[in-house]
Amino acid sequence: MRVYGIVGWKNSGKTTLVERLVTEITARGFSVSTIKHAHHTFDVDHEGKDSYRHRAAGAHEVLLASRNRWALMHETRDAEEPSLSELLAKLSAVDLVLIEGYKRDDHAKVEAHRAETNQGLLAVEDASITAVASDHVIDGLGVPQFDLDDIDNIASYILKEVGFE
User: What is the pLDDT of residues 42-66, one digit of tens each?
Assistant: First the structure.
């Protein structure tokens, strides 16, 4: 499986970019999975639901299944957060995994950047960022730059980078 990341500061457009890239790349015939890193506590089920009750009772894992999908929830409890490579090993084989977040890991990445966030560029100090997708032109950038809405060319760039085009 090939992996490519999308990173950026909060509200930089990462999730929208990943969503649009998944649509574009799957339309080109490639299978895509995603991993999103959350810096906060999150929950995929809710208090009172059976699966929540199983976890609250102390289950290590709860697998919820229907004819349309299945989801495996694994409680880390007091264990360390799993590494990106450990999480990648849990995925079924696909052509490409797009990773949102994990900006400190060393896989290749595109940085999403918006002027309104008033944040500096990660690409200035991170050699694993190979391109920037922004809503404004950034002068003197040492990597390719794309308009944040130029999904066709960003997708082509990523596919070329991972050896598919």
Answer: 667 788 888 888 988 888 889 889 9
80: tokens are 């360390």
Task: Evaluate whether 8 touches 122 at the Cβ level (below 8 Å).
Answer: yes
Rounded distance, CA 119 to CA 124, Å? 12
Q: What is the DSSP letter of 13?
A: S
Distance between CA 18 and CA 138 in Å, rounded?
A: 21
Summarize pLDDT for 125-139 with one digit per residue, the tens.
Answer: 999 999 999 999 999
CATH number of 2-40+81-161, picked from 3.30.450.20, 3.10.20.740, 3.40.50.300, 1.20.1440.230: 3.40.50.300
The residue extents of the domains of the chain are 2-40+81-161
Distance CA 40, CA 5 (A): 19
Closest CA to 111 of 122, 127, 124: 122
Nearest Cα to Cα of residue 154 among 52, 12, 17, 29: 17
Tokens of residue 93, six digits:
């084989």
3-state secondary structure of 54: helix
Q: Could you tell me the two tokens for 161? A: 């980078």
Enter the pTM of the model: 0.91
